[in-house]
Design brief:
Radius of gyration: 18 Å
Number of helices: 2
CATH superfamily: Jelly Rolls
CATH topology: Jelly Rolls
Protein name: 5-deoxy-glucuronate isomerase
Order of helices and strands: EEHEEEEEEEEEEEEEEEEEEH
Shape: globular
Oligomer: single chain
Strand content: over 45%
GO molecular function: 5-deoxy-D-glucuronate isomerase activity
Structural class: mainly beta
Strand order of the largest sheet: 1-17-14-19-11-10-9
Keywords: Isomerase
Pfam families: KduI (PF04962)
Enzyme class: isomerase
Number of strands: 20
Number of domains: 1
CATH architecture: Sandwich
CATH class: Mainly Beta
Helix content: under 10%
């Protein structure tokens, strides 16, 4: 079940529910909520989570804290604020809009926290038709979690991201072991996942709003935005390491692509968004993600 079409894992109140058990792995998960003013209450159990507005706004109540998330009209119209909720907690979310809840099985209990949109590091990666925007809101060096890592990627129509193809499934120098979820909005677009020697996987999926692609191992990329359609994806990653990392290994056949960006102009359409109501993008950051 590498490609999960929108709606196929709905489990009220969740519009999307991908657990580690459903994915067939150990750590990474993702839920989504569609709210029209009602309140949803749930327990986090063994998972640390984020509440991330995809569209609309909400209030998150947990451990006596009340966090107001201003959100955004859509993922293509701004960088959002977000909330962190810990393991073994009861959470109430009240709002109007669509909300993603990336999660990871964790053991360390951290406090409830608010992540302001204006402090989200916004990065432009690649060049030419591989130009894309990465919102590193929960990258290892941007926001503290126990296991969870999450970033957003916006790809202008006709461009490729997650390119060159890369993997993070082997423990070694310069590579971390990570399970990864791609959640898409916009599109249509296309997502490729393929194997390395001895570890086969073969996915080429047409993706659009609400679709998910799971990457248990193997090279993933490119993510292709069809001409005429911008593409958004949320990456959720988690793994066994004690220290969070997004270290990756390029497919050796395509690693030369990276050096081809030298001297190429960056697509002027990126960055596509900034923090809602802000004239600034919250800064730029060089991270070890390949999104």
């Amino acid at each position: 079940m590498s490609h999960i079409p929108a709606g196929t894992t709905a489990d009220a109140p969740w519009a999307l529910r991908v657990t580690p058990e459903l994915a067939g792995w150990t750590y990474a998960g993702l839920r989504a909520l569609n709210l029209s003013g009602e309140t949803v209450e749930f327990a986090t159990g063994s998972e640390e989570m984020l509440v991330l507005p995809l569209s609309g706004s909400c209030v998150v109540e947990c451990e006596g804290e009340r966090l107001e998330l201003h959100g955004r009209p859509s993922v293509f119209e701004g960088v959002s604020d977000f909330a962190y909720v810990p393991i073994e907690a009861t959470v109430r979310v009240t709002g109007e809009g669509r909300f993603a809840l990336p999660s990871a099985r964790a053991t360390r209990r951290l406090p409830v926290r608010y992540g302001p949109a204006g402090k989200v590091p916004v990065e432009v990666r690649g060049a030419g038709q591989a130009s894309r925007q990465v919102n590193n809101f929960c990258a290892p060096d941007a926001f503290e979690c126990d296991k969870l890592v999450a970033v957003e990627v916006l790809t202008p129509e006709g461009n490729w991201s997650s390119y060159p193809p890369h993997k993070h499934d082997t423990l070694g120098e310069g590579e971390a072991v990570l399970e990864e979820i791609y959640y898409f909005e916009g599109g249509p677009g296309y997502q490729r996942v393929y194997g390395s020697p001895g570890r086969p996987i073969d996915v080429l999926a047409e993706v659009g709003c609400g679709d998910v692609v799971l990457v248990p191992h193997g090279y993933h990329g490119p993510s292709m935005a069809a001409p005429g359609y911008d593409l958004y994806y949320l990456n959720v990653l988690a793994g066994p390491a004690g220290e969070r990392s997004m270290a990756f290994c390029d497919d050796p056949r395509h690693a030369w692509i990276r050096s081809s960006w030298d001297g190429q102009a960056v697509d002027p359409r990126v960055p596509m968004t900034t923090a809602v109501g802000s004239g600034a993008d919250g800064g730029t950051s060089e991270t070890e993600t390949q999104a």
